[in-house]
Write a structure and sequence with these properties.
The protein is α/β, with parallel strands linked by helices and about 300 residues long. The protein folds into two domains: about 5-65 and about 165-309, Rossmann fold, CATH 3.40.50; about 65-160, 3-Layer(aba) Sandwich (Rossmann fold). The chain has helices spanning about 10-15, 40-45, 65-80, 90-105, 120-125, 135-150, 160-165, 170-180, 195-205, 235-245, 255-270, 280-285; strands at about 5, 5-10, 35-40, 50-55, 85, 105-110, 130-135, 155, 185-190, 210-215, 250, 290-295. Strand 10 (about 210-215), helix 10 and strand 11 form a beta-alpha-beta unit. The relative contact order is 0.16.
């Protein structure tokens, strides 16, 4: 994280020339970005590849969502918004609630019933968000869109293009830390927004890595709650990113995701939430031997501590 004489340089300030923010926008930041890129020697040995882990659990609310939220909430504040809304399986809710509180805005969270880990719900409630439950993620998102259309709230789901603009900065960091673009980038695939963001970021730098976007075999009932999304909002964009990169979106059974989750903790010391290990599970199932690989670990294990039991 970069320091100046005035303190920490925020992600949006660091990459401001690459972000579509109003010139006079006051940056809403909690110190996001600049997350570690960690070598993974034991996983490298297992896969016969050179594996690095992009540890996004180091962001302020514990997930990659903070990268996009700082940009979306900054622009919402600059445009005079009073309230933001999102549908969420947990991480977006925690991030939206925290950044709205930082900006002095109201946050309305619409969550699918039975699909949100308690720790994520606690994060949103602790900072004052209004949390309501709907039957499914799709129902929650439809209502969030209605509130945006009514002009009363700014939607801060990844359908807001500023979210993806913020999240693309992870690609810039990886290229800076690695000294170039990796051969393969593996990550979880829930709604598809993060895959699209990485495609935007690496596309601005030049050639794309080959994307491995791992989705749960049973999207509706997976134990990896953060990717429990039946209808990916960014499916079309995700498919383009996969086609452009020569990548794939393998369907991974929960057993393999949970095995990768345990392996990551016990062999490399990273405790992530189960969904964050989906990309690693895909790599273990089909090792990219000899490749330079970055595996994106999207959220901290303290997001879903009940999974350990």
């Amino acid at each position: 994280m970069t320091l100046t004489s005035e303190g920490v340089t925020s992600l949006a300030e660091r990459y401001r020339d690459r972000l579509p923010l109003a010139a006079d926008a006051k940056i809403v930041s909690l110190g996001e970005g600049s997350t570690p890129l960690l070598p993974a020697p034991r996983l490298s040995e297992r896969t016969s590849a050179k594996v690095w882990l992009k540890w996004e659990g180091a962001n302020p609310t514990g997930s990659f969502k903070d990268r996009g939220m700082t940009v979306a909430v900054t622009q919402a504040l600059a445009e005079g918004a009073r309230s933001v809304v999102c549908a969420s399986t947990g991480n977006t809710a925690a991030s939206a609630a925290a950044y709205a509180a930082r900006a002095g805005l109201e946050a309305v969270i619409l969550q699918p019933e039975g699909a949100v880990a308690r720790a994520k719900l606690a994060q949103a409630r602790a900072v004052g968000a209004k949390v309501q439950t709907r039957a499914s993620f799709e129902d929650a998102l439809a209502e969030a869109k209605e509130l945006e259309a009514a002009g009363t709230h700014v939607l801060v789901n990844s359908l807001n293009p500023l979210r993806l603009q913020g999240q693309k900065t992870a690609a810039f960091e990886i290229a800076e830390e690695l000294g170039g673009v990796p051969d393969v980038l593996a990550l979880p695939y829930g709604g598809g927004g993060n895959l699209c963001a990485y495609a935007i970021g690496f596309g601005e730098l030049g050639p794309l890595p080959r994307f491995v976007a791992a989705q749960a075999e049973n999207r509706a009932g997976t134990a990896a709650s953060a990717i429990r999304i039946v209808e990916p909002a960014h499916e079309a964009g995700a498919q383009r990113a996969l086609a452009d990169s020569g990548g794939a979106a393998p369907s991974i059974p929960d057993e393999a995701i949970l095995n990768a989750w345990r392996l990551l903790a016990r062999e490399e010391g990273l405790f992530c939430e189960p969904s964050s290990a989906a990309g690693l599970a895909a790599l273990l199932a089909d090792p990219p031997r000899g490749a330079r690989v970055v595996c994106v670990i999207t959220g901290h294990g303290l997001k879903d501590p009940d999974a350990v039991a």
